[in-house]
Amino acid sequence: MTWTHLLESIHDRLAPTMAKDFPNLPVEKEEGCYYYGTDGKEYLDFSSGIAVTNVGHRHPKVVQAIKDGADHLTHGPSGVIMYEPLLTLADQLAAIMPGNLDCFFFSNSGTEAVEGALKLAKYTTERPYVVSFTGGFHGRTMGSLGVSTSKSKYRKFMQPNGLTYQIPYANPKACPDGEDVGEFCVKQLERDFQTLFEHQVTPEEVACIILEPVLGEGGYIVPPKAWLEKIREVCDQHGILLIFDEVQTGFGRTGEWFAADTFGVTPDIMAVAKAMASGLPLSATVASKELMKKWPVGSHATTYGGNPIACNAALAVIDVIQEEQLLDNTKEVGAYAYEKLQTLATKHDVIGDVRGVGLMLGLEIVNPVTGEGDSEGLMTILQSALEKGALFYFCGNKTEVIRVIPPLTMTKAQIDEGMAILEEALTEYEASISVF
């Protein structure tokens, strides 16, 4: 069947909730920082498969690791059998994890890692409630959905359990001029905790607090370090476990192995996935040995978690990040890209804000008259950029933020190429709305 016929049948064969995303670009190959379309065009990728292919698409070492792995084992299940890639990966991950996080439950996806983190926290504390933050995204299965509030449509008709409470995420933009952003956000956080604990739930009933150390799907908001430190302090004060959802921020995206390292705040439990195996399904719930030992055999299990081929790929990912010094590249190229985006913001009234850390950058698109987020305008800009050869993706509650999340292998020259395309798209969009 030809590509044309396949595309014509897409909405007959694939659930709309899966198939109707942006941009539905038909591709036949990926390599490095590029997708190659069935139209013969080359597309510079600023999405990394939604922060997955951090070492670039089809990195030769990852591809070879997958091939080598398939020559030996294609399936576990771990526990029934045991195999070297799983154990080696656990050792190598322990060496790069922050603090004392050195024990792993492997699964397949980010939402599974979050589910494991929530279950571990509830079981070991024997407390029923979870606190998360408005705007956070932690997955779409029922437990993780109960702590996800980036968009209300994700929870519509789902009725996730009522054992969760939400308080506002840090909002640096709301800080008045002349005030210290960290102090402002900490004061607001203290008021929010006081209201929560006095009116809704006692801290002694809270098993854990879960958050993204950099807000992802909710809009790429970077909180002050002091804000995260205050949350750590509150958790320690009340015996509450702190969970970092590093599904998107992990494996170099912020310029360190994990955002916990970037901010110098270590959680009790971490959920990691996405870039871990460069596209193969692999994730992990991570905690200390002491905490994991309180989770008895059979209280949590998996059939596919820790797949041997995926583990081989993950080992290659770690090697590539280290050998190619991608953490350093992320800091250097990320700072360069941030500066380029700031320059664009001075030229274009539709840019409301530039924010981010490392190569996790967000460009807020607004109505230049009202200052409100402009999802329609954003999609017009993304489509224009795509037609010119660059693929960007979106996030934000109102779909108002362009994600700039290229592979960590991207060069300054490729940043220049992508920013030139983005500027053309912004200029064309502003010209189109100036006539009204």
TrEMBL record:
Keyword field contains Hydrolase: no
Annotated metabolic or biological route of this protein: Amino-acid degradation; 4-aminobutanoate degradation
Matching InterPro entries: Aminotrans_3, Aminotrans_3_PPA_site, Class-III_PLP-dep_AT, PyrdxlP-dep_Trfase, PyrdxlP-dep_Trfase_major, PyrdxlP-dep_Trfase_small
Group of enzyme by EC: transferase
Enzyme Commission designation: 2.6.1.19, 2.6.1.22
Catalytic activity: 4-aminobutanoate + 2-oxoglutarate = succinate semialdehyde + L-glutamate; (S)-3-amino-2-methylpropanoate + 2-oxoglutarate = 2-methyl-3-oxopropanoate + L-glutamate
Cofactor: pyridoxal 5'-phosphate
GO molecular function, one term: 4-aminobutyrate:2-oxoglutarate transaminase activity
Xref: CDD domains: OAT_like (cd00610)
Highest taxon, organism lineage: Bacteria
Keyword annotations of the record: Aminotransferase, Pyridoxal phosphate, Transferase
Family: Belongs to the class-III pyridoxal-phosphate-dependent aminotransferase family.
Protein name, per record: (S)-3-amino-2-methylpropionate transaminase
The organism of origin for this protein: Pontibacillus chungwhensis BH030062
